[in-house]
Automatic annotation (TrEMBL), chain A:
Subcellular location: Cell membrane
The organism of origin for this protein: Chelatococcus asaccharovorans
Source organism, top-level taxon: Bacteria
Pfam families per the UniProt record, alphabetical: BPD_transp_1 (PF00528)
Species classification: Bacteria, Pseudomonadati, Pseudomonadota, Alphaproteobacteria, Hyphomicrobiales
Domain ABC transmembrane type-1 positions: 83-287
SUPFAM superfamilies linked to this entry: MetI-like
Stated name of the protein: Putative spermidine/putrescine transport system permease protein
Entry's Gene Ontology cellular component terms: plasma membrane
TrEMBL record, chain B:
The protein, known as: Putative spermidine/putrescine transport system permease protein
GO biological process: transmembrane transport
Bilayer disposition of the protein: Multi-pass membrane protein
Superkingdom of the source species: Bacteria
SUPFAM superfamilies hit by this protein: MetI-like
Coiled coil: none
Main location: membrane
UniProt subcellular location: Cell inner membrane; Cell membrane
Organism this protein belongs to: Chelatococcus asaccharovorans
């Protein structure tokens, strides 16, 4: 469904997950064994490995129990800085994605079918294209001899550093997360009945007033859902910060990878992974409470 | 769906400034994808834009290089394996999720979707530790298993929705005419959900083909996927060969999107 160009499926999935028509007579539980392959696969290759990471995070070099990995993390300024930076970047990415994504989703949801199909294609094609490819595209555009700086030089302007620093990181993050925000908002906005706004206007509300007091509150599930989804994804993101950020813009995911890849410090890496996981799960708990699970389903596909 | 009329309600028509903003943002979304294609046909010896002339030199460097071809081959193996694994497991799981009633269904659904909310970097290192311990690290199978974990939740959602769209009374009718439950599923339901299964498979294939973090940790010298090779190359220098590789990946994406849309149309006509 994720391949749908017109976005109809996004809506359909959320509806399907939401309500089950009573026509479907329940069959006896004889089919439950069909869940076994999925559950066994997840138990072996997902739950157990994660459990192992949690255990490892409490292990010292000799295999004994310890909390020193966590102590090491929270007692060093550099790691605290990375933790706060991760939260800050994820938060900023969420805010910018929302500011940019809301009008875009609004236009998408309220255009005629032809325009909408084309616009949806412009959202889905980048969304489905490899993140590496898109990031490489940005490197071509933003780097010192890249497209933008060539244009600037042609205009007689000086070179500006747009990549390998905070601005490069933010462009890359917002760019990568924007489709998630837009698709979540879109699935909610498509369900908003325009007649509410029409009624408000016929009762004397101005365009803006009708929007802020009627339409915007109705779109809140999308705003909350999209924001939490983007925050969760951004907080754990690895590729874009590595390729487009500077050395001082590295987030928790980069530190985890560095500890595993370069320092072979598996237990400490596990502790950082658990910290990232706790942040993610806390946000997800909030998400499930505020928006409900079905929104997550509709926005990811 | 009915919301079509309401959705394009004249009263909700966005004003001109909002529409202009939306188109600029769509250009922002498309820009990095579109810029790569002309760059990949550049005749320059280094990366420059606009390209001074047309040439296929970067494609020759890409497709004439044994390492790049080997990486494509690894990616094809990984993506095929994980797509097949994902589709089989997810289709089986979707049947009871949609057709049966049992307590704790929400819990089971939540469990099946859990890999979606765990950052991939954590899933990757967790599997890396496990596979390293049993000596399975650096293999095609390890990467495929990792990708199956990442893609399966979405496949379960998509296939559940597809199965939801098939009236179970058709299956009941077949059974009342003497078919066994398995026969009814295979002869009636399966053909109806086949387009959805193929779509999910194509999507799983594409996701696996493009995903980087899992093979970065679970791959190795003998199992280097295309994504990992691009990554290693981009970390060193931004050379135009990557533009040719990227254009190849964009073409693959477009191809799969078109195929999925044709399948959807076919399902509508059926």
């Amino acid at each position: 469904m994720a391949l749908d160009v017109d976005g109809q499926a996004t809506v359909r999935v959320s509806e399907a997950a939401a309500e089950r028509p009573p026509v479907r007579k329940a069959l006896p539980g004889g089919q439950l064994w069909l869940l076994l392959p999925a559950l066994a696969f997840l138990a072996i290759f997902f739950a157990y490995p994660l459990f192992d990471v949690v255990l490892r995070s409490f292990r010292d070099g000799q295999g004994g129990f310890t909390v020193q990995n966590y102590e090491a993390f929270f007692s060093r300024a550099i790691y605290i800085r990375v933790l706060l930076l991760t939260i800050e970047i994820a938060f900023l990415t969420t805010v910018f994605s929302l500011i940019v994504g809301y009008p875009l989703a609004y236009v998408l949801a309220n255009s005629g079918p032809t325009v909408r199909s084309f616009m949806m294609l412009c959202v889905m094609l980048p969304f489905m294209t490899s993140i590496l490819v898109r990031t490489y595209g940005w490197m071509v555009i933003l780097r010192p001899n890249g497209v933008i700086n060539t244009v600037f030089a042609g205009l007689g302007l000086g070179e500006i550093q747009l990549i390998y620093n905070r601005s490069g990181l933010m462009i890359g993050m917002v760019y990568t997360m924007l489709p998630y925000m837009v698709l979540t908002l879109y699935s909610v906005m498509r369900g908003i009945d325009g007649r509410f706004v029409a009624v408000a206007q016929s009762l004397g509300a101005g365009r803006w007033s009708a929007f802020w007091r009627i339409y915007f509150p109705l779109s809140m599930p999308g705003v909350a859902g999209g924001s939490l989804l983007v925050f969760i994804l951004a907080a754990g993101f690895y590729i874009t910060p590595r390729l487009m950020g500077g050395d001082r813009d590295q987030m928790l995911a980069s530190i985890i990878a560095y500890q595993v890849d370069v320092l072979l410090n598996f237990n400490f890496a596990s502790a950082i992974a658990v910290i990232l996981l706790v942040i993610t799960l806390a946000c997800f708990g909030l998400y499930a409470r505020v928006v409900g699970l079905k929104q997550l389903l509709s926005s990811k596909v | 769906m009915g919301s079509d009329v309401m959705g394009s309600d004249a009263l909700l028509n966005p004003g001109l400034p909002v529409r202009v903003f939306a188109w600029i943002m769509l250009a922002f979304l498309m820009a990095p994808v579109l810029i790569i294609i002309p760059v990949s046909f550049s005749s320059a010896q280094y990366l420059s834009f606009p390209p001074p002339g047309f040439s296929l030199q970067w494609y020759e460097r890409f497709l004439g290089n044994k390492d790049w071809l080997a990486a494509i081959w690894v990616s094809i193996q990984v993506a095929t394996l994980s797509a097949v694994l994902t589709v089989i497991i997810a289709t089986l799981a979707a049947i009871p999720l949609v057709r049966s009633d049992f307590s704790r269904k929400t819990l089971i659904y939540g469990l099946l979707l859990a890999p979606m909310i765990v950052p991939v970097i954590i899933t990757a290192i967790a599997l890396y530790f496990i596979f390293a311990r049993i000596g399975m690290g650096g293999t095609v199978i390890a990467i495929a298993i990792g990708h199956t974990i990442v893609v399966m939740p979405i496949a379960v959602v998509v296939l559940s929705a597809t199965l939801q769209g098939v009236d179970s009374r058709l299956e009941n009718a077949a059974m009342s005419l003497g078919a066994s439950r398995f026969q009814a599923f295979r002869r009636v339901t399966l053909p109806l959900i086949a387009p959805g299964i193929i779509s999910a498979g194509l999507f799983a294939f594409l996701t696996s083909f493009d995903e980087l973090v899992i093979p970065l940790f679970l791959g190795g010298p003998n199992a280097q996927t295309l994504a990992v090779r691009i990554w290693n190359s981009v970390m060193l220098e931004i050379e135009p060969t990557i533009a040719a590789v990227s254009t190849f990946l964009i073409a693959l994406t477009v191809l799969i999107m078109v195929a999925a849309n044709l399948l959807k149309k076919a399902r509508r006509w059926a």
